[in-house]
Amino acid sequence: MFAVRHSEIQNEVPVIQSTVQSSCVEKPRSLASWIRSPSTRMHNMSDAELFWRASFAPRVKNYPFKRTPKIAFMFLTRQSLPLAPLWERFFKGHKGLYSIYIHSLPNTNKTSFSPSSVFYQRQIPSQLAEWGMMSMCDAERRLLANALLDISNEWFVLLSEACIPLYNFTIVYRYISESRYSFMGSFDEYGPEGRGRYSMGMAPEIDITEWRKGSQWFEINRKLAIDVVEDKKFYPKFEQFCLPHCYADEHYFPTMLSIQSPHLLANRSLTWVDWSTGGAHPATFGKADIKEQFFKQKIQGKMCMYNDQTSSVCFLFARKFAPSALEALLEIAPRVLGF
What we know:
By secondary structure, the protein is of the alpha/beta class. The protein has a domain at 45-56 and 66-269: Alpha-Beta Complex (Spore Coat Polysaccharide Biosynthesis Protein SpsA, Chain A), CATH 3.90.550. It is 31% helix and 11% strand.
């Protein structure tokens, strides 16, 4: 691809050499051109092209430039971000320490944010993602791949439009950046909602003793994010055998990462969810629920492990909050959430 009568060769060679020489010296590439963050989230790459590009990883770990590690906040949404004003307040004053990516329904209005918003032009090329289906994992991989294009993104947090931060940005950044583990729940759950969803077709790549379940909402580091987007071993098995009612988004990442890198997982999520009401979906909280006592009773005071030590700070985010909760959240945030 880079290399007809014999009499024409002498005439052709100088032309080829000239072309090669000019292409080599015409536009020298600087280091900045390789490490510069993409100016826009939109592109025309297919998923295959995007995942291939995102899988690039430097073999030399000592960066020859000043690199400030960032957290990539990845919002997997159905349409809009009704709680955006709360997040705007959370991000204010911390430019350079975070990136934002939004995966929404393909027909979502991509001009719904003003140019002054941190969410302005942060939507990525998106496709339909259906609850419980492998297309949901595709959307999450798409978010990770787009975020990996920015070499400064070191940690990757998956959130929904119904999520809120429970602490100010400084606490969240310190908690994630100083953790020795990534926060992905991965449990060997017996019964119909755990091992009961396993298919024998998963073998030999995945044995039933390796089948795991965890929360869809995770935080992982750059190494694990690359593992996810470059996966060709486990994805085909899930695509073929994790069919309704398997709920791929609860099993694919926990199973794959617990097999490949169990020592890097904290085995819990950073996002609090209330499943006490039973059913397929967690409880939703509206305006009437937003009281200081709500946060004290529901979320605070729990105990967990952080860097192998007992900690009372276990969750950095929470869901599921309705749009009607926004006004009350903005009012209570300075006293309860710290921003």
